[in-house]
Amino acid sequence: MGIHDGHRLRVKRRFLESGLDGFDEHTVLELLLFYAIPRADVNPLAHSLVSKFGSLAGVFDAPIEELMAVDGVSENTATLIKLVPQLARQYMVSRASFDDILTSTEKAGAFLVPFFVGERDETVYMVCLDAKKKVLSCKRLFTGSPNISLLSVRKIVENALTYNATYVIIAHNHPSGIALPSREDIDTTIRIREALAGVDVELVDHIIVADDDFVSVADSGFLEKRAH
């Protein structure tokens, strides 16, 4: 067993015994890199990546082209790195229960935030609820739009009717990292509410997500202000 093999074994055993608690960021990345680069000391590369992109999150969020521009990062290595946040999102979405009853802003936010983990493009989701506010469906409606105002209100109404929804929650993310609703967000929320009301479906809220934070358009008072 070489010196690198011994080090790898110790890091893996430490992880298996206590998880990632106590690991610094470059060691977390080093453990991941073991599975992309099986026969080399990846410690310097882990340090280099964290230094270049500022943090572990910065490494995972970096464009694949920028990752591959780093000496020692192959396409396979970059692909593994980019896979991690997407796996985290799928894991958290998989844990979201469609038996949930979303009777508060906090419950709605907790249910929806995982759907946006690692999402770098603006993405819109629609949650259909029954009369008891139990989740009937959570559907991705659109992704890649620079502005939610481009979203088809007709598509939202059609989905509400398809799932026989009594209530609807709309959610989208702000990749900029600021969850505050824009004027376009508020105007679009009003148009969606009015269109749904025409088919006897109530828009409960529009949740805006940024990283782990979220803002409720309803709780912010915009719906009430525009309703009068």
Summary keywords:
228 residues; alpha+beta; 10 helices; 16% strand
Could you walk me through the main structural features you see in this protein, from its secondary elements to its overall organization?
It is built from 10 helices and 5 strands. The longest helix has 21 residues, at 75-95. Strands 2-1-3-4-5 form a 5-stranded mixed sheet, sandwiched between helices. The chain is an alpha+beta fold and 228 residues long. The termini are far apart. The protein has helices spanning 3-18, 25-33, 43-53, 56-61, 64-68, 75-95, 105-112, 153-162, 183-197, 222-227; strands at 123-129, 135-143, 167-173, 202-210, 213-216. Helix content is 47%, strand content 16%. The mean pLDDT is 88.
Overall geometry comes to elongated
E-strand count: 5
> Main sheet: which strands, in order across?
2-1-3-4-5
What is the gyration radius calculated from CA atoms?
A: 22 Å
Poorly predicted regions are: none
| N to C succession of SSEs | HHHHHHHEEHEHEEH
Query: Could you tell me how far the N terminus lies from the C terminus, measured between alpha carbons in angstroms?
Result: 75 Å
Give the % helix.
40-55%
For the biggest sheet, the summary is: 5 strands, mixed
On the 0 to 100 scale, the average pLDDT is 88
Strand content bin:
15-25%
Helical/strand content category: alpha+beta
Number of helical stretches of at least 4 residues? 10
